Amino acid sequence: MPSLLSIIESSMHPNFSALYEKSGINETKTNSIRKAIALLKQHQPDFIVCEFFYGYGNNYAGVNISNLDVLLSTLQKYSAQTRVIVIADKSERQYVDKLNELLPLHAILVYPAKEKDMAHALDC
Questions:
Q1: Given strand 107-110, what is the order of strands in its sheet?
Q2: Which helix (H) or strand (E) segment is 18 a member of?
Q3: Parallel, antiparallel, or unpaired: how do β-strands 3-7 and 107-110 relate?
Q4: Are strands 47-51 and 107-110 parallel, antiparallel or unpaired?
Q5: To the nearest whole percent, how much of the chain has pLDDT over 70?
Q6: What is the Cα–Cα distance from 58 to 100, expressed in whole angstroms?
Q7: Rounded CA separation 67/2 (Å)
Q8: Chain centroid to CA 93
Q9: Dist. CA 78–CA 81, nearest whole Å
Q10: DSSP symbol at 91
Q11: What is the pLDDT of residues 60-110, one digit of tens each?
Q12: In 10 A of CB 98, how many CB atoms?
């Protein structure tokens, strides 16, 4: 049974649990990147669905582009086969492309993400 890790960091994160269940995908949910990294050390999911937040001059500035940099780097070590689906605000889409150049993503969805787009990203 395929598995999916949903990292829900904001209320904007769409709830596709019914789609995952209908598609036979086992979903695990967490609410932070830190907790997701801990989970990755124990279990390697087939998919990760997460939100992208650009680091506008905060602690992400400099080396990191966003909230996902450390997660994606960790994936290379613990779960390189995991496919990452990122959901981003339209205004930050250009920054997701920068991240995608450094660490390839499986799919990029823009808010409001639709169920048919997620189904396509999951190849359901």
A1: 26-30, 3-7, 47-51, 83-88, 107-110
A2: helix 17-22
A3: unpaired
A4: unpaired
A5: 91
A6: 20
A7: 25
A8: 14
A9: 9
A10: G
A11: 445 667 889 889 989 988 888 999 999 999 999 988 988 888 788 999 999
A12: 11
Find the range with the poorest average confidence among 7-16, 30-39, 90-99.
90-99
Of the options 3.20.20.10, 3.40.50.720, 3.40.50.2300, 1.10.3210.10, the CATH number for the domain spanning 3-121: 3.40.50.2300
The pTM (predicted TM-score) of the whole model is 0.90
| DSSP 3-state of 53 | coil
Instruction: Domain ranges for the chain, please list them.
Output: 3-121
> Within 10 Å of residue 62's Cβ, how many Cβ atoms?
8
E strand spans, the chain: 3-7, 26-30, 47-51, 83-88, 107-110
Sign of torsion, CA 70 105 1 8? positive
Give the CA-trace dihedral at 102, 103, 106, 111, to 10 degrees. -70
- Beta-carbon contacts of residue 72 (< 8 Å; ≥ 6 apart): 84, 99, 102, 103
Per-residue model confidence (pLDDT) at position 66:
84
Q: CA triplet 63, 88, 7: central angle to 5 degrees?
A: 80
